[in-house]
Amino acid sequence: MSSRPSTCIGACWAHRRWVLPVVLASLAGCVVGPDYSRPVPSPTAGYTRSPLMLPSAGRTDVQQHIVPGEQISGRWWTLFQSRELDDTMTMALAGSPTLDTARATLAEARQAIAAARGGHYPQIDLGASVARARVTAGSNRRSNSRVENLFSIGPTVSFDADLFGRVPRQIEEQIALAQVAQYELAAAWLTLTGNAVIQAVDIASAREQIRAVEDIISVDEHNLELVRIEREAGKAATTDVLSAQSQLAADRTLLPPLEQQLSEASDALTILVGKTPAEWTPPRFDLERLYLPNALPVTVPSRFVRDRPDILAAEARLHAANAAIGVATAQLYPNIALTASWTQAAGTVGELFDRSSGLWSVAGGLTAPLFHGGTLKAQRQEAVDAFAAQLGIYRQTVLSAFGQVADTLRALEHDAAALDAQRNALDAAQASLALSQASYQYGQSSFIQVLEAQRLFGQARVGYAKSKGQRYIDTAQLFVSMGGGWQSWDDPAMRPSAH
Predict the structure, then answer these.
(1) What's the first-to-final CA gap in the chain, in angstroms?
(2) Which of 46, 447, 451, 464 makes a 20 to 30 Å CA pair with 283?
(3) At how many degrees (to 10) do helices 83-95 and 166-232 cross?
(4) CA angle 168–169–171, rounded 5-degree value
C-alpha cells in the first residue's frame, strides 16, 4: 500500500464531508488474492525426439515435405484445390448448429462481464408501498383505535465500498470465462472444418475403393466367362468353373461394406453442414480431383501452445480459477456498505408529494466476518484446490496436443512408406495377373494360379486406394492439430466486445 490515503485525507480535511469517500476510493485499490501469470512453455518441448523427414511415396504419388515454422492458412482446406470442397465448407460454416450454440454461449459470457462490472457503481432502486393498519392511542384502546393508510414512495441508493477487490476479481474471472467461450468457439470451428474435410476425403476414398472392387468384380466375371468357354471346349474342369464362381461371390461381398462406409460419410457430412440427408446430397468427391498439399507447415513448439484453441481455453479456465481465489479471499475481510434513501410518506395520495412529507436517511454499515463455522476458509481452500485441479487439466491438455501432433507426423511418415509399398505391390500383382491369365490361355498354368494372382491383385488394388485416402485424411489431421489458422477466421462473434 502507498501513502496516498493519508495525503488525500489531509488535502480534503477542510471538506470533511468528502473525507470518507476519498478514504474508501483509496482503499479500493487493494485487491487481495494471487495475480495471474501465464504458464511458461517448456524450452525443451518438441513433437518428436529427432527431426522428421518424410520418405518417398513412390514415383507416381506426391512427395510431401515438412516446413518448420510455417504458419497455417486460415482457409487451409483450399490447399486441396477443390471447388466442391470449398462450397461445402462455406455451407458448413454458415449452417452449423454447433457454431450457433458456441456464438450464443460467447455472447452470454460477455454479458456476464457487463453484469460483474455493475458492482463498481452505486445501485439505485425505486420503492413504493401501500399499507393499511389499525392503530391505537392512549390507554383506552377500544375507544381510541382507528384505521389509517400509509403511502410511501422514493429512491434508495446503495454502494458496496469493496475494500479488498472482490468486484475486480469477479470481473477478472468473468473476462477469463468469456475467453474460454471464445476459444471454445474457435475449437468448434476447427473441429467442424476438420471433420468436414475428413468426411469429404472419406467419401472420395470410399468411392476409390468401390471402383477398385468393381474392377475386380469385372475381372472375376471375365474369368468366369473365360473358364466356361474353356469348359465347353473340354479344356477346363468343372472345378475350375466352381472356383471362378466362388471367387466372384467372395469379391462381391467386399462391396456392401464400402457402400455403407460411403453412405455413413455422406450422411455425416450432410449433418455437419446443418442439413438432413433428405435435404442435401454431398458432391461426388474424387481423390483424383483433390490435390494433396506437398508442403506441410509445422508450427514451432513455443508458438504451438498459443495457437491451439483447446490449450488456450484450458489456460483461460486456469486464469478464471486463479481469479476465483481472489473472490473467495475477499470474503474473509470486512466490507463497508453505504445506503441513502429519500422517501415521501403520507396518509393520503394527495399528501404524498407534499414537501413536508419527505423523509431521508443516510447510513453506513461495516460487516466483518467473525465466525462462519469455517465456511469462508473452506471456500477459499476450495478455490485453491480448484486452481490446482485446473492446472493439471491444462498440463494434460498440452501433453495431449503434443502427442496428437507427434502421432499425426508419424502417421504421415508411415503413410508415405505404406503408399510406396502398396504401389509396388499393385504393379507386381497386376503384372503377375496378366502373366497368369496369358499362361492359362496357352495351357501352361492352372486356373488356381490365375485365381491366386487375381486375389493378390484385388488385395493390392483395394489396399492402394485405402492407403491413398488415409494419406489425405492424415494431411487434414495435421492442419487441424496445428490449430488450423483459426486466428484468421473473420467471424463477427470473434471480434473484441465493447464490454
Answers:
(1) 29
(2) 464
(3) 140
(4) 65
* Residue where the block lists cell 490447399: 79
Beta-bridged to residue 363, according to DSSP, are 339
pTM: 0.83
Read off the pLDDT of residues 71-101 as tens digits, 9 standing for 90 and up.
Answer: 887 899 999 999 999 999 999 999 999 999 9
Of 159-168, 225-234, 309-318, 355-364, minimum mean pLDDT range: 355-364
Q: Beta strand 146-160 with 123-135: parallel, antiparallel or unpaired?
A: antiparallel
Question: pLDDT digits over 345-365, tens only?
Answer: 777 776 767 666 667 777 778
Residue 207 CA to residue 258 CA, distance in Å, equals 8
Question: CB–CB of 202/66 below 8 Å?
Answer: no
Asked if residues 66 and 52 have their Cβ atoms less than 8 Å apart, the reply is: yes
Question: What three-state secondary structure class fits 273?
Answer: coil
CA dist., res. 489 & res. 80, Å (int): 18
Q: Quick one: pLDDT at residue 442?
A: 77
For the segment 149-162, the average pLDDT, to the nearest whole number, is: 85
Residue-wise pLDDT tens digits, 128-142: 888 877 767 665 555
Q: Distance of CA 34 to CAs 117, 313, 320, 379, Å?
A: 20, 20, 12, 16
The secondary element (H helix, E strand) that includes residue 123 is strand 123-135
